[in-house]
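During the no-cost extension, the postdoctoral fellow (Dr. R.K.) reprocessed legacy sequence entries with the updated structure-token encoder. One reprocessed record is reproduced below for audit purposes.
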Amino acid sequence: MNVHNSLEMQNRITSLFKIEYPIIQGGMVWASGWRLASAVSNAGGLGIIGAGSMYPEVLREHILKCQEATSKPFGVNVPMLYPELNEIMKIIIEMGVKIVFTSAGNPKTWTSYLKEKGLTVVHVVSSLKFALKAQEAGVDAIVAEGFEAGGHNGRDETTTLVLIPAVKEQLKIPLIAAGGIGSGRTMLAAMVLGAEGVQVGSRFVASNEASSHQLFKQEVVNAKEGETQLTLKELAPVRLLKNKFYNDVQTAYANGASVEQLKELLGRARAKKGMFHGDLEEGELEIGQVAALIHDIKPAAQIVSDFMAEFKEAKLAVAKL
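Re-encoded structure tokens follow.
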């Protein structure tokens, strides 16, 4: 990309993170290690290490390796349901990480503390109500994630097409769109709706650098429209590929399973089994609806480059309408 082209993309999100393109890689469990984060950052986006599947010392190692692999900004995603949250936050500050994305919890708990330490804080939400609460808590930007998104998701089932304009209407701080964004065209659509950047998850799962198992990546590429489903709302709503485990959950529902029985069926490390170890039958295979539009596994830098080329092409085409 020449300088002129990248300058066209400067807005509140690129300024906030000091990045070239307003493309943020989602901090997905079992996919977003230092290799993926550094590759996305080196390509001009914002790479994110997903702390949700890391013990504190493993996170420390990933931050260190990411710092060695890129001189560009990167962040860490922290689901606030984390049992060792204090230790995780301590490591993030100790290691000099400058950007934290929090999710699955109350942004009030950590935002002011992180801001006092000089960090940029972004919170992930799935509704207008929580977006406004996060803004009130003092975060620097919001990721509003639609129902299409993979993994843990909102209960309201609001799609990206509805959620982004609804949040934009009342939000003062910068807005990042997530859920169903897997191409430059969908990036343009999200920005027309009022977002100033996009967070991309599923498309980066099917990248060479994602730490997910090759069999899982291939399953994402093979997925057809309608092959993901949001389920387990009684525990925490999660969108995943339909497989034997998913069918077992449906059978449990049909038999009137209690919350306790669902918890037992889910067990421990079900997502790790599927996404990291490649057990396509018994694992939880978390991915977004956009998997149906992903047809190959390629380098993260190529994904960023393709996004930007397609974004510009779509923008020119729309200008002719």
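Residues 245 and 282 are 5 Å apart (CA to CA). The chain has two domains: 3-211+294-319, 214-290. The remaining legacy entries will be reprocessed before the final report is submitted.
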